[in-house]
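DM from R.C. (forwarded with permission)

"hey, sorry to bug you on a friday — could you get me a structure for this? deadline for the figure draft is monday and I only need the backbone to look sensible"
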Amino acid sequence: MAKSARRVALGVTGSIAAFKAAAIVRGLVKRGAEVRCILTPNAARFVAPLSLAVLSRHAVADVADPSLWEMAHLSLASWADLVLVAPATAYFLARLAAGFGSQ
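My reply, with the result:
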């Protein structure tokens, strides 16, 4: 990890690989990063938000929570040195490539 990437926003999308997010958070924190997670509703079906909250030492944001989209998502993007989406489903990548932000 680059020295400048000390604050990482980790987005987790809904696929069976979402359970790997816990290992990603653990590894980033072990290397000195401060990690904040945001989960899609489907991701929360594969990995418990509480697990990521404990590992990251921060509350986990839920993209389905309307209060998040007032301003919190902008502050999270401003806060982060690095935004990582892992796993990134093909659906997520297609929506990202097409420029869609919400459903």
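R.C.: lifesaver. Residues 26 and 55 are 6 Å apart (CA to CA).
me: no worries. The first strand starts at residue 7 and ends at 12.
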